[in-house]
Structure formats: C-alpha cells, structure tokens
Amino acid sequence: MSILRYFGGKSVLAPQIVPLIPKHTTYVEPFAGAAWILFSKPESSVEVINDLNADLIGLYRCVQNHLEELVKQFKWLLCSRDEFERVKSLPPESLTDIQAAARFLFLNRLAYNGLMSNPRFAVSTTRRPSLNLLRIEETLSEAHLRLSRVWIERMDFGKCIERYDTPETFFYVDPPYFKREAVYGEGLFERADFQRLSEQLAGIQGKFILSIDSSLEMREQFKRFEVDEVSTTWSSKEANRKVKELLVRNFS
Fold it and tell me: Tens of pLDDT along 221-234?
C-alpha cells in the first residue's frame, strides 16, 4: 500500500493493471508518483522508481535509508488544521532532508486529494483523517521493507527509459493527466512531452503499460499501440466520480 495520497494515484486501477504485467526481470516506473503499482505487485529481480519531483524522491529515500529518524519527526504532531497551517508555513530551505520529508508526507496525507501545488487542509463528514499518527511507524516500516531493494532515481523520464531499457525490462508508465500537467508541479512535465514520450516508447526494446485519461487527444497520441478503455474512480469535492482511463501497451 502506498504511503501517499496522489491525484491520479492508481489505488483503484492496480487490481486491473497488475495481472497484465508480463514476465520480466527489471521493473521500472519513470513517473513514480505514489507508486501504487510497485506497492501492489510481487517483487521483481530489479526494481526502479523514478520521478522528477525532488520532494517526492527525497521522501522515498528517507523512508528507505533513515526510517527511525523519519518516524521521530511525527512524535509531537497533531492532525489538526492549525498544525497543518503551521507545518505548511515552515520554509523548506530551513529544514534538514529528513525534516523536509516528514513535512511533505504530513501535508500530503492531510491535503485535499494530496495536492501539493497549493495544499489545503481536507475535511470530510464521512471519513476519518487520512493520516493515522498512531500507526505511522507501522506504515512507514512496511514501506521501508518494500523499498529496501529498490533503486530510487530522480531524472527526466526520457533518460530513465533510455538508461533501463532492455528486452527484459517492463515499464509501468503513468504520466500526468492531459491538461492537468501543472497539478504535479510546475515545469515537471509539459504538454509537448506526451509526443516525446509516445515516440520514445515506440522504439524501446522492453514492454510497457501506460495509463492515461481517456481523451480524444490521448487516443490520437497513442493510437499506434494497443489501447483498452477501463473504468476507475476519481475523488472530487462532491463525491467519488466514475471515469474512463486508457491502458496503452506494446504487447498483446
């Protein structure tokens, strides 16, 4: 189970995606995000998660290498609006890597939809807070064990695909949703990058599954591959909303 809330996270789609993963030696996620597929699937011989978001990768590296110190950061925190605003106001540049990782996780878990571009404290009349501080050590320990043998990279998706591409590699590719690129951070992924991604995937040695929103533009962009439409759920202010997504792949 992922430790993060993430807009477009694949918690709902994971049961549909994992059974489709072909036999492979190396597993790579060029856009890790919440890494729901990694946390949902059996371990591969070699595993790589990559993302250009420095805060995200900093958190994963701290979970992997500094678990005890990271857990300590949550000892005196409270799940409250005042605490959320206090932690949000902390200048990231004044924090250590471990403190910054704890800040990112705390805000992410309590923010509406986990959105970090301008995090707002999330409230609900039907759900408990999404961060259980009494179980934070257990939650992070499970993630630590799962990440213990995973390579964690921070580079452009194109460089990641090029570096790890072999005939025995499987890529799970989960780019930002079309027209929502900036939700994940300014400058991390541009509209033109969809074309670059499509062209690169057409030439790889390995296999891939790509998930993306079902739009006319994305259907056109990836029409050279096998494309299936599936149902999933997005969270909205009003309620969970049923939507369609595309699963794109280069194998039958």
Answer: 999 999 999 988 76
Per-residue pLDDT, averaged over 81-91, amounts to 94
DSSP for residue 121: B
- Whole-Å CA distances, 131 to 64, 134, 236: 20, 9, 19
Q: What is the pLDDT of residue 113?
A: 65
- Neighbouring CB atoms inside 10 A of 162's CB total 13
CA dihedral 147, 10, 135, 115 (to 10 degrees): 110
Is 31:56 a contact under the CB 8 Å cutoff? no
Asked if 35 and 174 count as a contact pair (C-beta separation under 8 A), the reply is no
**H-type helices in the chain, by residue range?**
14-17, 36-40, 54-65, 67-72, 81-89, 97-110, 136-147, 157-164, 193-201, 216-221
Residue 57 Cα to chain centre, angstroms: 10
**pLDDT (0 to 100) of residue 238:** 44
Per-residue pLDDT of 100-120, as tens digits, reads 999 999 999 998 766 666 777
Q: What's the pTM value of the predicted model, to 2 decimals?
A: 0.91
17 close to 35: Cβ distance less than 8 angstroms: no
Report the alpha-carbon distance of residue 220 to residue 222 in Å, rounded: 6
User: Given the structure tokens 């949902």, which residue do they identify?
Assistant: 40
199's tokens: 């062209």
Over residues 164-182, the pLDDT tens digits come to: 999 999 999 999 988 765 6
